[in-house]
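TL;DR need structure tokens for one chain.
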Amino acid sequence: MKSKSLALANGIVGLIGGIILIFGPFLLLGGAVSDAAANSSTASSTFGVSGFLTIVKIAILALGIIAIIFYKGTNLVKTAAHVLLIVGGGVALIPFFGWAGGIVAIVGGSLYLASLKNFKLK
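>> reply
TL;DR here they are.
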């Protein structure tokens, strides 16, 4: 029997990561305003937020790829959930399309959480 924890992790990362990606432009704007108000020449807040958003995008993409390999040949999780996480992470990596990838990742994460009922306890 396949593990339920990967599906749970994908669901949580898909939902929370998607919400973060939707609000990503506002977070970047806040970092830029913070750097401008502090008269910093390094833009460290903007770089920090940008790096965090990139890590979230790559995590969503990687978890989708890992899960499609892990659950291959089973009907515990539908293929649409894997594909939506992969597409959401890939679209989010395109500049200025992070919010669209976030929406797709939220749908993929909710499909993972909906599929948790297919796992039986032993």
